[in-house]
């Protein structure tokens, strides 16, 4: 297995991990069919290889650039899919996406803060002699962080209700979890193929980015 291929899979994994679902608090729904998430896989695999003779600094820079490229690609696909699936008109789309972007940025900050608190809690309780007051303070910070996440979710829901019809809101809710699950599936499939050095080389299936009304058909071998 090529070193660069693994790195590209790791880049996609990092981006998928950090790509917060648009509706992370809603109930999980099942994924259906090949979708736009696969384009992110193809985008990564078709990128410039990261040579394994590169210096650590250059490699880190290259990974960061690749990560940003894939993140932008996923963001573009998400916007396209939402516009199509919710059948948004131009005015609604123009009002909606800046709002979604703002909420996603705030949510990302809260989630990053939550992970920071969790790491500090893990470090503190792992000490041979830990400080109960420090742990209590961190628990208070954690509860406050969770409260802010819920308040943000309520604020987002209220704002969306003023922009979308009930049907569009339902479609938006179902889309959020499904899209992220599709990205996770694409990453797992690509990584599994990349690390499976014991089996013959096989071509990773690439799905076509399709409109919701279209059905992808497999090519029939002659």
Topology (SSEs and partners):
Blueprint: H1 3-18, H2 37-45, H3 56-85, H4 90-125, H5 132-161, H6 166-195
Describe, in short, the structure shown.
This protein has 222 residues and is mainly α. It has helices spanning 3-18, 37-45, 56-85, 90-125, 132-161, 166-195. 68% of the residues lie in helices and 0% in strands.
Overview of the molecule:
The structure is a single chain. The protein has 222 residues and is an all-alpha fold. It folds into 2 domains: 1-86 and 177-212, no CATH class; 89-163, Up-down Bundle (Four Helix Bundle (Hemerythrin (Met), subunit A)), CATH 1.20.120. The chain is built from 6 helices and no strands. The protein has helices spanning 3-18, 37-45, 56-85, 90-125, 132-161, 166-195.
- Cα shape: extended
Average residue pLDDT: 72
Sheet with the most strands, sense and barrel status: none
For the termini, the CA-CA separation is 30 Å
Radius of gyration of CA atoms, rounded to a whole number = 21 Å
If helices are DSSP runs of H or I spanning 4 or more residues, what is the number of helices?
6
Domain module count? 2
Number of strands: 0
Helix content bin: 55-70%
Beta-strand content: under 5%
Instruction: Give the structural class.
Output: mainly alpha
Order of helices and strands: HHHHHH
Q: List low-pLDDT spans.
A: 9-41, 44-52, 198-222
């Amino acid at each position: 297995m090529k070193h660069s291929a693994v790195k590209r899979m790791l880049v996609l994994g990092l981006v998928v991990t950090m790509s917060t679902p648009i509706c992370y608090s809603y109930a999980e729904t099942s994924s259906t069919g090949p979708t736009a998430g696969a384009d992110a896989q193809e985008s990564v695999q078709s990128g410039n290889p990261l040579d394994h003779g590169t210096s650590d600094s250059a490699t880190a820079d290259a990974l960061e650039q690749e990560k940003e490229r894939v993140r932008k690609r996923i963001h573009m696909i998400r916007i396209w899919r939402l516009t199509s699936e919710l059948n948004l008109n131009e005015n609604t789309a123009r009002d909606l996406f800046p709002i979604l972007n703002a909420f996603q940025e705030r949510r990302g900050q809260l989630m990053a803060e939550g992970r920071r608190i969790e790491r500090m809690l893990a470090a503190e309780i792992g000490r041979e002699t830990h400080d109960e007051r420090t742990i209590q303070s961190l628990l208070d910070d954690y509860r406050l962080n969770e409260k802010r996440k819920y308040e943000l979710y309520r604020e987002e829901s209220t704002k969306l209700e003023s922009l979308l019809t009930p049907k569009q809101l339902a479609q938006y809710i179902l889309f959020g979890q499904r899209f992220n699950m599709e990205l996770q599936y694409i990453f797992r499939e690509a990584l599994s193929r990349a690390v499976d050095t014991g089996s013959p080389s096989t071509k990773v299936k690439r799905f076509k980015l399709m409109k919701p009304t279209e059905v992808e058909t497999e090519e029939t071998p002659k």
